[in-house]
């Protein structure tokens, strides 16, 4: 990827490096990072000349795009995307007129220009214009919420400041064992620096903390080299994240791996080296390459064997720790309050004499063989018995998995639940590939091994202020209060909203508008307010839920911990239901997105689901943004949706407890039509539903109540009359497709005449045994290309993939 910046304006007012980084970011987001782009900043006079010469239009304009992929430039290098020429004068003038920051306007125009280079056009049809505007807004939002908005000098100074802070806190943590900040705060600083260096690698300081794994090197001890790098682990904060990681490893590994789940002890990492069965060295992790020799002190730990029962050559990694019960006894007898067992253990290992270290009853669990000869197995879990035979203490709470299924999640949850009952402190869990050969094949990233992942208990956190509390309402009427926050970065992302769950949660926190609060970002879910740190003085009272729905003024009802609007005619509930019905998880009605649904409701063209199939789209004529072609596309999308299968129609209704997973269970059990569900409800046949594995009694009662609801029955009848599928299609054995696409990996891009939505093409591929993937890579075997295929087509050609166009695809299907 190459972005060239050419400032030809007589009074340059742009940050060249930042503009280059923004250009690189745009190319990367558009998946055309292997292209070259030239960004030229000129005056009105210069762009007016170009406008006249190439567009035969007089006067200046804001941006011009010159593609090198077509026309008179097409003979040039294939990876040269083209030039985007920006008038700084016009940009400044437009920014002033719209009361928009100059930088924002410049970025918007740059995105606009690049999109033109790859085939977007806003001057042909309303749909094309909408598509281009949508893509522009997506890219613009990502950029303005990123560090790319900071001036280069600000970034440079920020990187220096963060590096100094992290070095300072690393020294306190590893050397002095007297940390001043929490692990979560250290991780926040580290992640912020990592993100800045990702965008600006040339501004990283030579001794950046991100290029090291954290160091416990102490000049008072001799420095020794590790035989193999001792790396720290990458981390995540949710069970779903660690399971996703494991699934990715299964796909990347050269053979099916197995996994070990260990507790992550909050202690001191130590590397023990044995030669001919004798302990010859104990070293701290240090910076991963070098550590401190603390052999004399470590030999005082009774649990560590000084001589093995056989003359083995081994390098073992373990964790030195102090049991909680021992820690409390030390504090009681010495009359001294220590910060934590971990800090006391760290200090004990580095005491000046081994006699002083011996006064502290340290313990150890070993957990990995770093290096060794003549090992009896390639599998580290199977090597546990070997280590036990050698006399090493191992953590008994270790799990072994041959696949990451429900049992895996249960083990993680069990380990989390028993954390507080342990006699030692853990700050997370570690999942590792068990086979050494698979580890070697996966390798490392430079800082972390790819074959291991740490699950940290504490989520990334930050402190901010509640600026307001908004009410959100779902299609089933559930009310969720959401805190509007002063923007703050948490775990590398800018957070402006955080859930407050419900009134009980708010009461427990004592939260109100203006409070200073701690928020966390639990994995990738919506951020949550965790704690009120400081009450605002003007109104110290806790915020209270309104007594009536702010959208329809109906009195709210509390059920359990949540408030509900029980008015089925509430405009916000109806809006949420209609948006769900038309969405991709519902009927997948093309050209009927949330904004269009809102316009239809606001103009009183639709009020309920069935109205979508009876209203006249021509009534949209005259409303801004709705021209003839768009109206025709909406008609087509609505008509096409009538062919969706019964399962999709049922899920789109948004009936409580009836998600697609449960619907599949019902259909597979023979309850495969609306008539069957209505008949079960009429007979109140709870037993028929409970007999299905996975359906509990409360769910069964909920389903029956829904299909006794006259409103739902009326909706079903109306949808039946407009031609929607009322029953599942029976599979015909003779019609089962041959697996002609087995093991083929297809990526689909562009627009198709015969496959609307294009997910239908994916269904045809999957029926024939193929796999549909979202992006083009070396593992992709085929690209199905429609009209306006874009950058994926270019990448597929570069990789030499099989490219199939719609006509050929239809021939393949027969």
UniProtKB/TrEMBL annotation:
Tell where it localizes: Cytoplasm
What cofactor does this chain's UniProt record say it requires? Zn(2+); Mg(2+); Mn(2+)
Q: Where does NAD(+) bind?
A: 183-187, 232-233, 262, 285, 319, 432, 456
Keyword Metal-binding attributed: yes
Q: Where does Zn(2+) bind?
A: 112, 116, 122, 549, 552, 565, 570
**Which InterPro entries does the record cross-reference, listed alphabetically?**
BRCT_dom (IPR001357), BRCT_dom_sf (IPR036420), DNA_ligase (IPR001679), DNAligase_adenylation (IPR013839), DNAligase_N (IPR013840), MetalPrtase_cat_dom_sf_prd (IPR023091), NA-bd_OB-fold (IPR012340), NAD_DNA_ligase_OB (IPR004150)
* Cellular component annotations (GO), alphabetically ordered: cytoplasm
Residues at the catalytic site: 264 (n6-amp-lysine intermediate)
Q: Which reaction does it catalyse?
A: NAD(+) + (deoxyribonucleotide)n-3'-hydroxyl + 5'-phospho-(deoxyribonucleotide)m = (deoxyribonucleotide)n+m + AMP + beta-nicotinamide D-nucleotide
For this protein, the Enzyme Commission number is: 6.5.1.2, 3.1.-.-
Q: Which family does it belong to?
A: Belongs to the NAD-dependent DNA ligase family. LigA subfamily. Belongs to the endoribonuclease YbeY family.
Q: What does this protein do?
A: DNA ligase that catalyzes the formation of phosphodiester linkages between 5'-phosphoryl and 3'-hydroxyl groups in double-stranded DNA using NAD as a coenzyme and as the energy source for the reaction. It is essential for DNA replication and repair of damaged DNA. Single strand-specific metallo-endoribonuclease involved in late-stage 70S ribosome quality control and in maturation of the 3' terminus of the 16S rRNA.
Which PANTHER family does the record cross-reference, listed alphabetically? ENDORIBONUCLEASE YBEY, CHLOROPLASTIC
Which protein, by its recorded name, is this? Multifunctional fusion protein
């Amino acid at each position: 990827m190459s972005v060239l910046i050419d400032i030809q304006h007589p009074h340059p007012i742009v940050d060249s490096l930042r503009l280059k980084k923004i250009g690189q970011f745009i190319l990367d987001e558009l998946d055309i990072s292997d292209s070259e782009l030239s960004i030229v900043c000129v005056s009105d006079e210069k762009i007016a000349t170009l406008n006249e010469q190439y567009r035969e239009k007089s006067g200046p304009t804001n941006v011009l795009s010159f593609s090198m992929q077509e026309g008179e430039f097409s003979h040039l290098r294939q990876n040269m995307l083209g030039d985007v020429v920006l008038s700084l004068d016009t940009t400044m003038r437009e920014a002033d007129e719209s009361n928009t920051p100059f930088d924002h306007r410049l970025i918007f125009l740059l995105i606009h220009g690049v999109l033109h280079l790859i085939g977007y056009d806003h001057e042909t049809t309303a749909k094309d214009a909408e598509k281009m505007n949508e893509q522009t807004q997506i890219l613009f939002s990502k950029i303005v919420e990123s560090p790319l908005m900071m001036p280069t000098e600000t970034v440079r100074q920020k990187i220096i400041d963060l590096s100094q802070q992290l070095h300072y806190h690393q020294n306190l943590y590893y050397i002095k064992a007297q940390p001043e900040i929490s692990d979560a705060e250290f991780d926040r600083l580290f992640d912020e620096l990592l993100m800045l260096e990702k965008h600006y690698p040339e501004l990283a300081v030579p001794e950046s903390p991100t290029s090291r794994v954290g160091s416990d090197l102490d000049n008072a001890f001799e420095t020794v080299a590790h035989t193999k790098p001792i790396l720290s682990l990458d981390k995540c904060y949710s069970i779903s994240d660690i399971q996703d990681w494991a699934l990715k490893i299964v796909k990347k590994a050269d053979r099916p791996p197995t996994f070990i789940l260990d507790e992550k002890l909050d202690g001191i990492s130590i590397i023990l080296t044995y030669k001919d069965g004798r302990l010859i060295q104990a070293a701290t992790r240090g910076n991963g390459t070098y550590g401190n020799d603390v052999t004399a002190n470590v030999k005082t730990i009774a649990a560590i064997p000084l001589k093995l029962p056989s003359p083995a050559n081994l390098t073992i990694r373990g964790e030195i720790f102090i049991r909680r019960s021992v820690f409390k006894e030390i504090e009681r007898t010495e009359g001294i309050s220590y910060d934590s067992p971990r800090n006391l253990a760290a200090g004990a290992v580095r005491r000046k004499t081994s006699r002083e270290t011996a006064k502290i009853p340290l313990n150890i669990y070993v957990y990995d063989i770093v290096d060794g000869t003549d090992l009896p197995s390639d599998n580290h879990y199977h090597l546990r018995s070997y280590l036990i035979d050698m006399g090493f203490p191992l953590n008994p709470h270790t799990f072994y998995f041959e696949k990451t299924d429900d049992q895996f999640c249960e083990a993680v949850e069990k380990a989390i639940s028993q954390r507080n009952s342990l006699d030692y402190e853990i700050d997370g869990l570690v999942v590792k590939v068990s086979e050494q050969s698979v580890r070697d094949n996966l390798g490392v990233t430079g800082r972390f091994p790819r074959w291991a992942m740490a699950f940290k208990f504490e989520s990334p956190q930050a402190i901010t202020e509640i600026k307001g509390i908004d009410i959100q309402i779902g299609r089933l009427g559930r009310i969720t209060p959401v805190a509007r926050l002063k923007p703050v970065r948490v775990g590398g992302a800018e957070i402006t909203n955080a859930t407050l769950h419900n009134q009980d949660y708010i009461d427990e926190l004592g939260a109100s508008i203006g409070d200073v609060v701690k928020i966390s970002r639990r994995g990738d879910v919506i951020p949550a307010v965790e704690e009120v740190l400081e009450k605002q003085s003007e109104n110290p009272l806790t915020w209270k839920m309104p007594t009536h729905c702010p959208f329809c003024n109906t009195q709210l009802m509390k059920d359990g911990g949540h408030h509900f609007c029980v008015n089925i005619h509430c405009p916000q509930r109806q809006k949420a239901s209609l948006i769900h019905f038309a969405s991709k998880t519902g009927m997948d009605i093309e050209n009927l997105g949330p904004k269009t649904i809102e316009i239809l409701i606001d103009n009183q063209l639709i009020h309920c689901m069935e109205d979508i199939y009876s209203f006249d789209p021509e009534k949209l004529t005259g409303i801004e943004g709705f021209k003839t072609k768009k109206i025709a596309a909406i008609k087509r999308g609505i008509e096409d949706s009538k062919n969706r299968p019964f399962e999709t129609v049922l899920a789109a209704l948004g009936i409580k407890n009836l998600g697609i997973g449960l619907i599949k269970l019902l259909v597979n059990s023979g309850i495969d039509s609306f008539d069957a569900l209505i008949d079960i409800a009429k007979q109140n046949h709870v037993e028929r539903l409970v007999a299905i594995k996975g359906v509990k009694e409360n769910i069964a009662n909920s389903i029956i109540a829904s299909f006794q609801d006259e409103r739902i029955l009326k909706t079903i009848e109306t949808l039946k009359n407009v031609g929607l599928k009322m029953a599942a299609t029976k599979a015909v054995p003779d019609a089962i497709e041959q697996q002609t696409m087995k093991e083929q990996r297809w990526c689909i891009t562009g627009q198709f005449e015969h496959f609307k939505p294009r997910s239908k093409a994916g269904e045809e591929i999957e029926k024939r045994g193929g796999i549909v993937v979202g992006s083009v890579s070396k593992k992709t075997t085929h690209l199905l290309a429609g009209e306006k295929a874009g950058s994926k087509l270019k990448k597929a050609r570069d990789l030499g993939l099989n490219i199939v166009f719609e006509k050929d695809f239809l021939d393949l299907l027969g």
